[in-house]
Every structure is written in structure tokens, then in C-alpha cells.
Write a structure and sequence with these properties.
3 strands; 3-stranded antiparallel β-sheet; alpha+beta; 116 residues; elongated; 6 helices
């Protein structure tokens, strides 16, 4: 569980920055060279590379170097980690709101339920 949490924390930290989210969004359309990606952002290449390294370190993208060109590829499997976490949170909150709804709409039924 701690491993899962550390990985999830890293993904959230990586996605906390709008530039990195834009890179993920752009890579959703297909693999792209770092140079082409960097041209879309108003910053120097070394600054942009820090974002690329953060995304790569947290497993959200992979880079492949061929000659002088480094290409970024989105790691969709890593995004599944977020999907799983969000689905779990959604299930927990739906159960809670369903219990609250039953309590509010049918208080007599709740009088017969055992108290925890």
C-alpha cells in the first residue's frame, strides 16, 4: 500500500503543474519530439526539460532517443493508477451519500438498523 501511495503521490505532484498537464494532453494525440513539444510553451528548452524529466520520473511518459531526436510517448498505463484511485473515492462517497439519503428519506427504516 505504501508503494502504491508513493507512486500515486508522484503522479499527483507531476500533474499539479499546468505545463505538465498540457504536455500529457498533447501526448494524448500521439508521440512527439521534445523539440516540437517545447515550441508550444513560452520557456527555454532547459526549463521545459525539467518538466519532461518530472513526467518521466513519475512514469507518466517515456522518452526514446534516436540520433539527436528525443521523442516523448505517453504511458497510458500510469494514468490507470489515477483512474483506479478516483473510482475508489467515487465508490466510497456514493456509499456515504446513499446511506445519508436513506437516513433522510426513510428514518423509520433506520430505527431498525443496528447501531455500529
Amino acid at each position: 500500500m505504501a508503494q502504491y501511495s508513493a507512486e500515486l503521490d508522484g503522479v499527483f505532484v507531476a500533474l499539479a503543474d499546468p505545463t505538465r498537464r498540457d504536455v500529457i494532453r498533447r501526448l494524448g494525440r500521439g508521440a512527439t519530439s521534445v523539440g516540437d513539444l517545447a515550441r508550444e510553451f513560452p520557456m527555454t528548452l532547459p526549463s521545459f526539460m525539467k518538466h519532461v524529466r518530472t513526467l518521466e520520473a513519475n512514469g507518466l511518459i517515456r522518452t526514446v532517443k534516436s540520433g539527436r531526436v528525443r521523442t516523448c510517448v505517453l504511458n497510458r498505463d500510469r494514468l490507470a493508477l489515477l483512474d483506479d484511485w478516483l473510482a475508489e473515492q467515487r465508490r466510497i462517497w456514493e456509499e456515504r451519500t446513499d446511506r445519508l439519503e436513506r437516513l433522510v428519506t426513510d428514518p423509520e427504516e433506520n430505527d431498525h438498523e443496528p447501531r455500529p
